Amino acid sequence: MRFDRPFEGYVVGERHRSRGRTITEADIVQFAGVSGDFYPLHIDREYAKQTQFGERIAHGMLTLSAATGLWVMEQGCVLAFYGIDALRFVRPVKIGDTIYVESEVKQLTERSDTAGLVTVHQQILNQHGETVVDALVHMLVAREGKK
Amino acid sequence: MRFDRPFEGYVVGERHRSRGRTITEADIVQFAGVSGDFYPLHIDREYAKQTQFGERIAHGMLTLSAATGLWVMEQGCVLAFYGIDALRFVRPVKIGDTIYVESEVKQLTERSDTAGLVTVHQQILNQHGETVVDALVHMLVAREGKK
Amino acid sequence: MRFDRPFEGYVVGERHRSRGRTITEADIVQFAGVSGDFYPLHIDREYAKQTQFGERIAHGMLTLSAATGLWVMEQGCVLAFYGIDALRFVRPVKIGDTIYVESEVKQLTERSDTAGLVTVHQQILNQHGETVVDALVHMLVAREGKK
Amino acid sequence: MRFDRPFEGYVVGERHRSRGRTITEADIVQFAGVSGDFYPLHIDREYAKQTQFGERIAHGMLTLSAATGLWVMEQGCVLAFYGIDALRFVRPVKIGDTIYVESEVKQLTERSDTAGLVTVHQQILNQHGETVVDALVHMLVAREGKK
Amino acid sequence: MRFDRPFEGYVVGERHRSRGRTITEADIVQFAGVSGDFYPLHIDREYAKQTQFGERIAHGMLTLSAATGLWVMEQGCVLAFYGIDALRFVRPVKIGDTIYVESEVKQLTERSDTAGLVTVHQQILNQHGETVVDALVHMLVAREGKK
Amino acid sequence: MRFDRPFEGYVVGERHRSRGRTITEADIVQFAGVSGDFYPLHIDREYAKQTQFGERIAHGMLTLSAATGLWVMEQGCVLAFYGIDALRFVRPVKIGDTIYVESEVKQLTERSDTAGLVTVHQQILNQHGETVVDALVHMLVAREGKK
């Protein structure tokens, strides 16, 4: 999603597709280190072979975090990350998969004189066009002349 | 939460408190690098001074990711991260704050012969006992004798 | 600089100021690790105290690298980093300093049917408005309809 | 280059070849994180396939930074990185390429009672002996008895 | 080893096998950065080809460090890392190898009213069951009711 | 220690003092990530306050790893890290402490036509001259004309 305008600039139904990012083995190793999540599904090749996935997969939270890095956020436009609803990790992200974020504005809610809530249906897709994560994301956005 | 048993071992209402982790400036810098989210609220001290927070704060996704690292997950017990509902970033996490995860099992749902869904109300607290993140987390857990 | 257009869209004399980034101790530690440059001026507090700077300073190459991260580069617009001229490290960047990039297009040179060279005078400033790095940067940019 | 002597110890025309370093996918991922430069040519495999390079390449600034890590710098000998001239990124560095630095002292300039400028023609080569970066590098070096 | 009890709870002869972790190229790159050890055996593919190992290998200290991350250490149980004896790096760890820690308690020594020393014979194995590191590790552990 | 010669070039009793490195909070955070050792003594400020140390301390293995990065190892001179004996973590390393390595060659052992063992008494000191780690380190070094 592009958070590059004051609240008044968004329209329900507008859509955006982000650029891509390849999730590498190095990303998984780094994410284990940052999060502290060393669950063997992510970092033990021998263990992962025996699971339903057959190989190491990215942490769900890595995919979700990398998606926020694919958003465009202009300074001053975003006040805070408000929340997430109905998030589902639909498919695994494997080493070498490339992810994209497809977004559609679903709801716009005034919160105060200075802030509004932009609710976005966010799908994270892989290079085959398959959805890997599906969620509703709520961002607190500055109102016109208030950023 | 402790995901250290097969599905049959959980009871609605059981609670767990994790150990702590201090969120440092280095964590924020690393997380910006891993996620690609360089929004100035997290990495620009001059900008952050002028926001409602008055200083740089941790990415919401960093706090959430660090919480997964505070879970105890025994090998074979967790099959997959299923999803998240009703997540709200309630308070900022500042540099030097220490976070803890308090969990309560809310629902247990059989999904198949091999897996069940454990739904946990997860609160991430800071060192003052204040909730910083509140969410419902769903984990797919192996059934007895099936891990 | 904003590299967000085909070559034909640039005008000599146009200027841009980037958002900021605070250079932290963690950035210096990480940069030593990525570059392999562990010169004690950057990572030994006792040694740095005795130099003309009186404290640890950022690697010049860290400042320069962080500046490229402050550029806006739209996918497909930039073909390659062509080169740098007349780069001078004018002042030290200390832990906690915030840097900004001020750019002015100085020259536009057609290179082929598909690419042009955009030459930018780039000044990296600190939070006091002092220049810390001064350079001419050349970027190979796609021509209209060729990206 | 070896910066392991006071200024008086250098001779115009002296040459040095550094040891090597392989640039890995992990280096590119880490460098994107440290610099903040997530341009898709470096981190999106699908995008990179469609460029003139056909695959992801290292950031020019990563190659340049890694070269500084291949210099030998004895404590006290180097006072500051002074500047760079005539830098050209001549060829791409691909994942798995190994780089070396070949240096030749071109000029020696007294700057003060305590410092001199050592100007070095630096070529960064790959494992095939091809130049990937070519530049003039200026280092401020301590004079005899002044470090 | 599981350090999850007060000193009184250990028995000479008890054994434990940890879960696994795959040592990746990214781990080696990161460890070079954290330790500052850029010896070419670890980070220069061309050089490593000509050694007795024929390829890059993990730093011995990386393997040893990753082994401590495979220990289970309950908060309050471990007071301090006391020391290591008779450590031998027996076989190389190559990129993609998975390591496990096998431990056996060899000796229990009271040190004070509050602490005891647990001496563990630790073998780090690879996925073929071969020992790669062999050592005696001494941990200072809290006594009953003293943690 | 300087491992910059063939085996024949070492003399029992020769000594060396390395340059320094300050151990920062960022180093501890990174090392937790690389090793997977998130024991709260290192990463939880609230917990650490209540221990005998009163604050977070560096992982023993971080100090030991950083010491290897302070060695000088010329390409081809070191064949392998052979082992460690009598290692004791004598004092804690706190955030902001600077470490140095003092080495003395204790024993020289021919191992084959191509390799010899150099045994070094290594003391890691802090900026107050106090020993923090004491160990005997064995390195396998190339013999003359055999590197």
Quick summary:
By secondary structure, chain A is of the alpha+beta class.
Could you explain the architecture of this structure?
- The structure is a homohexamer of 147-residue chains.
- By secondary structure, chain A is of the alpha+beta class.
- The first copy, chain A, has a single domain, classed as Hotdog Thioesterase (Thiol Ester Dehydrase, Chain A), CATH 3.10.129.
- Helices cover 21% and strands 39% of the residues of chain A.
- Chain A contains four helices and eight strands.
- In chain A, the strands form two sheets. In chain A, strands 2, 3, 5, 6, 7 and 8 form a six-stranded antiparallel sheet that branches.
- In chain A, strand 6 and strand 7 (115-125) form a beta hairpin.
- The longest helix of chain A is centred in the first third of the chain and has 11 residues, at 25-35.
- The radius of gyration of chain A is 17 Å and the shape is elongated.
- The two termini of chain A are 19 Å apart.
- The model of chain A has no long low-confidence stretch (mean pLDDT 97).
Topology (elements, then pairings):
Six copies of one chain form a homohexamer.
Chain A: E1 2-3, E2 15-17, E3 21-22, H1 25-35, H2 40-43, H3 45-49, H4 60-70, E4 72-73, E5 78-89, E6 98-110, E7 115-125, E8 131-142
Parallel strand pairs in A: 1-4
Antiparallel strand pairs in A: 2-6, 3-6, 5-8, 6-7, 7-8
Number of strands of chain A: 8
Low-pLDDT sequence parts of chain A: none
SSE order of chain A, as H and E?
A: EEEHHHHEEEEE
Largest sheet of chain A: 6 strands, antiparallel
Roughly how many Å apart are the termini of chain A? 19 Å
User: What is the correct CATH architecture of chain A?
Assistant: Roll
Content of β-strand of chain A = 35-45%
Computed over alpha carbons, the radius of gyration of chain A is 17 Å
Structural class of chain A: alpha+beta
Any idea what the shape of chain A is? elongated
Count structural domains of chain A.
1
Q: How much helicity do the residues of chain A have?
A: 10-25%
Helix segment count of chain A?
Answer: 4
CATH topology of chain A: Thiol Ester Dehydrase, Chain A
Mean pLDDT of chain A: 97
